[in-house]
Amino acid sequence: MAVSQDSSSRRLAGLAVAWRGDRVFYLDLAHPGARAAAAAILARPGPSKVAFDAKGLLHALAGTKAGPGGGGGAPSSCPLSTAPLAPSSLIDVRLVAWLLDPDCPAVDDGHKGGDSALDRLLDAHSGAAADAAAAVGRPATARARVAAPPNRCRLACTVAAKVWHLHQHQQAALDARPDGGALRAALAAREAAIVPILARMEVSGICVDANVLEDDWLRLKDVQARAVAWLECAAGEKVAERVRSPGALAAAIRKAKAEVDLTSPAAVSVLLFETLAIPPPPGATSGRGGLPLTNKRVLAALSHYPAVRAVRAYRVAGKRLEWVAELRDAVAAEARAGGGVLPGVARVRATTRLTATSTGRLPLEDPALQTVPRAVDFDGFAGPDGALFRCAPRRAIIALPASLLVVADYRQLELRIAAHLSKDEELVRGFAAGGDPLAAVAAAVHSIPLASVTPAQRFAAKTVAYGLMYGMGDGKLADGLDCGAADAARVRAAVVGRLGGLGAWLDKVGDSCRKNGYVETIGGRRRALDLDSGAAHAGTAASFIVQGSAADIFKGALVDLDRTLALGAPGLAPGAARLVLQVHDEVVVEVGKEWAEAAAGVVADVLARQADAWGLLVALPAKTAVVASWGGSDEGGA
């Protein structure tokens, strides 16, 4: 199945349907009765509907401006609705290809250009490309079968024929695999079922307030300006201590200030280690020109110096400015396209990539909302007067005046999955008691009461536990802990001593992967890995199992939640709340103020019941907040 669109308006022009390899039929939707016929085809139960880029197809059928290969967009006047499509009745051949081989480059839905992307997928499946070429590659045959339609109609018919042949090869591949039944179940229950859900979320979008972004932009620029000014002053004072000639002093100070360039790592190294004479930390490596590096690990070891704190503040502000700029651009683009809802406020419609990761996680792009950071406090780098402000770009993502947002975030989803899979006693016991096993580990490691555990000590235990799961080396662990490699190794050894079950499970994962050549998620999805080749290690295998299982559970929760919100629940009218955003293990639901508290309860219940649905040893609670902005969830509520 494929669609054609008008090249200028991008509105739906026709629908091509192939149900045999040598027969393709095209419905020109300009003809009377054609739209009703198309709706009847889509609504008909029985045979599955198969497409390439099913989410893009749904956008075209629903009348959104972006069609196959694109994201959402403001709704157009096209009346054809996606409503007749049952969630599992539309199969995406790219999703099936991803299930068969999640590492195949051709399955990445980040590639633009529908026809060329489909051809790459055909080439990746032995025999499919040849069969498709035989059916559509000869002009005379194509004319006879398509009855010489316009170019856009011919293209749609060609795509439909290619999809049909690819689907046949994929079904044969599933039949031949011992895990074919599990993959078909995953496709029906989750992978295909979330496609229409994500399509609706892309169309509805989420409101972003450019006024908040502008305020953050100005404040972040002020952080950087203050950092530069403070460092220029510090450099001038240091130079003044060394220059003895009064005539040369003014020129030397001007030169030192002019050389403060925080955008250049080399210039930062000269500033810190030569101009300001800060001694490099033990073991600091050198970069080009023999200058010590100024990476995150080095600066963390020197954070007691105000000058280093100023450099770190400048860099953190720079990263936040990138997110703010991306969101500002997205708001401006939506406003130009007619997506504005209030002065300075527009609904931003990010595109969800279904097959971008082998694990099944669902990143967003244009804009990349999953990278919008949580709140960060810019504390003083220049003494008591250095305190600045809290930067929270998520505050800009808001509900409309008559609505609120329900934000629900799974608590430690991946660690809970690891606890279930490894049966680690410390983790299972801690989660079963409703406590905090990471805090308990930190207390045991430091031989202190649980109530005395500091946030930094708990964070260290958390970082090591996740690093253990994902095969993180001491160097990377040191980056995460903001400490030296030797200290990171000591912390790792202490934490690993408390999580013996997790370590034993990791060993079993490596042994099983070497024996079978693959690892498998809780939902039955497999990934082939060769640990003996050196291209992957046991941490890679464990990472796929844990993160892939988290994706399975989260997608199941999305399907369950979407269905529950549509049908309604006690205290919540059908359709009174709707999903508008998913990020990692977090969902955002938009709801009228009068339904907000009931919706929060429903969302929390649906997310929590996934533990029973998957037969987990541990609960899956979610932190839920009713807020006016996404950033309000960082504060614990509106």
At a glance:
The chain has 638 residues and is α+β, with helices and mostly antiparallel strands. Helices cover 51% and strands 13% of the residues.
What does it look like?
- The protein is an alpha+beta fold and 638 residues long.
- The chain has 24 helices and 19 strands.
- A four-stranded antiparallel β-sheet has the order 7-8-6-13.
- β7 and β8 form a beta hairpin.
- α7 (151-176) crosses α8 (180-191) and α10 (210-242) runs antiparallel to α14 (306-336).
- The longest helix has 33 residues, at 210-242.
- The radius of gyration is 28 Å and the shape is globular.
How do the strands and helices of this protein lay out in sequence?
Blueprint: E1 2-5, E2 12-20, E3 23-28, H1 34-43, E4 49-51, H2 54-62, E5 90-92, H3 93-100, H4 114-124, H5 128-136, H6 139-146, H7 151-176, H8 180-191, H9 194-204, E6 206-209, H10 210-242, H11 246-258, H12 265-275, H13 296-301, H14 306-336, E7 340-342, E8 345-348, E9 351-352, E10 364-365, E11 376-377, E12 390-391, E13 397-398, E14 403-410, H15 413-422, H16 425-432, H17 437-446, H18 455-469, H19 474-481, H20 485-498, H21 500-516, E15 518-520, E16 526-528, H22 538-567, E17 577-583, E18 586-592, H23 596-608, H24 610-613, E19 622-627
Parallel strand pairs: 4-5
Antiparallel strand pairs: 1-2, 2-3, 6-8, 6-13, 7-8, 9-10, 11-12, 14-18, 14-19, 15-16, 17-18
Helix pairs in contact: 2-9, 3-7, 4-7, 5-7, 7-8, 8-22, 10-11, 10-14, 15-16, 15-21, 15-22, 16-17, 17-18, 17-20, 18-20, 19-20, 21-22, 22-23
